[in-house]
Amino acid sequence: MEQGKMAEAESLETAAEHERILREIESTDTACIGPTLRSVYDGEEHGRFMEKLETRIRNHDREIEKMCNFHYQGFVDSITELLKVRGEAQKLKNQVTDTNRKLQHEGKELVIAMEELKQCRLQQRNISATVDKLMLCLPVLEMYSKLRDQMKTKRHYPALKTLEHLEHTYLPQVSHYRFCKVMVDNIPKLREEIKDVSMSDLKDFLESIRKHSDKIGETAMKQAQQQRNLDNIVLQQPRIGSKRKSKKDTYIIFDTEIESTSPKSEQDSGILDVEDEEDDEEVPGAQDLVDFSPVYRCLHIYSVLGARETFENYYRKQRRKQARLVLQPPSNMHETLDGYRKYFNQIVGFFVVEDHILHTTQGLVNRAYIDELWEMALSKTIAALRTHSSYCSDPNLVLDLKNLIVLFADTLQVYGFPVNQLFDMLLEIRDQYSETLLKKWAGIFRNILDSDNYSPIPVTSEEVYKKVVGQFPFQDIELEKQPFPKKFPFSEFVPKVYNQIKEFIYACLKFSEDLHLSSTEVDDMIRKSTNLLLTRTLSNSLQNVIKRKNIGLTELVQIIINTTHLEKSCKYLEEFITNITNVLPETVHTTKLYGTTTFKDARHAAEEEIYTNLNQKIDQFLQLADYDWMTGDLGNKASDYLVDLIAFLRSTFAVFTHLPGKVAQTACMSACKHLATSLMQLLLEAEVRQLTLGALQQFNLDVRECEQFARSGPVPGFQEDTLQLAFIDLRQLLDLFIQWDWSTYLADYGQPNCKYLRVNPVTALTLLEKISREMKDTSRKNNMFAQFRKNERDKQKLIDTVAKQLRGLISSHHS
Length: 815
Hints:
It comes from Cebus imitator (Panamanian white-faced capuchin). One of its GO terms (biological process) is Golgi to plasma membrane transport. This is Exocyst complex component. The chain is mostly helical. The chain is 73% helix and 0% strand. α1 crosses α3 (46-152) and α21 (640-655) packs parallel to α23. It is rod-shaped.
């Protein structure tokens, strides 16, 4: 029962479900019916569903039939009318077909024209679009073409600016085009190319500056020389609002416009050609010779590229290298002034360029860098000058070098560089200059002294007299009163030496110019140098002349006279120095001239040489002495050699009339003493072992001739018998032996007023032994085997007795 109910319930549900599916089929679009049918087939009652579907179809057919039956008459009527219309429609169709054919035939050209118009419109649209795109690309291409032109003409900084505009303004607008991508890819390469080319231009500039530094420095030093000449002129004239040209006034303002379109300015290597100016034309500014645009361009380019520090380091490094090359002097620089000038020109040129770079760029170089370079340059320059100037032996070259160094220092001082060390170094060169002057004047003095005739200067007219007096300060009223011809007491070397001393002082003064020294310092320098000239150079020259082997007594006498007058002229030299330095001699610390001492020493040396020379002459005459010490004949006149010697002495002392009295007296006394001493040595010579009393008598005659000469007063000023005292030793010795007064000698020996006070027992014994030997030899020859004669034996005994007593005196004296 329950099963029947359950089957009935399921059947109802199935029927309801089939009804629902049928409604969905009726109401659903055919495309979406698949899922509905699938639900039918998924179930198990599709057969029943098919039955229901058939039933539903039949129902709908019946309804359609009913509806058709209801509308059938109207349908028939419509079909009838439609058949009627069909004939008309066919006619109409034929007419339309004909009309269409005609229209197609007639409109074919229009269609073709319309097609052409369509193509034209399309092309027009394409052209317009293309023009628009080209108008957008054209500025890019123009900028790129401009960039290439600027690169080609080496206008690198404008090219870099163009590149920036191209990259940031134009290319972003057309970035989707392929050629723009190529441009974008080339931009870094172009930047590097600009960077490299600008650096190449900078290298060319640096190389050109290095080669032309001497020209730049030469121009700057000419400017400084002109300014100094102008200042000197202004100082000599009343100052009417004139001022020294400042450093800023000397600058020529440069056109630093970087974006210059002039190809020449872009391509210039840095140096402009300037013809040599005449002396009377204005010298162009040193910076006029230089085009600094390569530096400015490169600096701006690297700044724009963000590599300014790299550029600064490179520039400074290269300039340091160039500075070291410039500061390396050539090995032969000391040979000519041009060598020094070129060296200075290069240094000045280097620092003129650096100074201009300092003032026209911001930070490329700074003051610390310039000061560092200058310190290095100053130390190397001073070291080079010390080394090379030490080779200079020509004072004119040293003086020219000093003037060049002063100009070098003044030039750099105008540009603000400290140059005190250069002036300090010039003071060192001043000492060297003094040494070279002394060497030069040593040669001058030597030539003057060698060429002098050592004779008083003869004057035959008033004109010649005034000329000599104008050259040398000499006043002698008595000489002025004498008629012409007359003679100055001194020889020609006196005015020549005096004038050369003044020339030396002038030469010293020349070196002190422009050294910024005070008058006192200049005066002290001149006086010290002049003292060296007098005490060393002139003194040595005079001493060399005096010590010359072939110098004669006449020359020596004239030298004494000359030095006497030169000594008197020293006060005039003092006045001369005072006049040119304007420093009074009374000023504290003023150095005094040592000329008086120099000439006194020379005169004393000449005097000593006179004494020595006289003695040598006497010795030469004495070498002619030929005594026969064994003669027994008694002579009646002096020896010939001695007569000649006395005649020579008389003529010599006659020349001494112009000498100071003491000099002549000392020379005469010295000659007599030397003659007496030489005669004594001749008498007591060891080689003369024997002599006779006859020979002693001849010797006595010669001594008497000498005494006669002494009594004749060959030189005035001696007191009576003073000159004879030179021969007193010989006289007493000879008197003792000729008079044979041994008893008196032996008895009075040692008494202060004894007759033979000057006879030495040793001398007496030596001479007595020579006579004793001669007597013994004579006795042997007269009687070789017999006994001696009584008187000879007695005399021999006496001699032996006297000799014994003399030995006793000698022994007691020694004890």
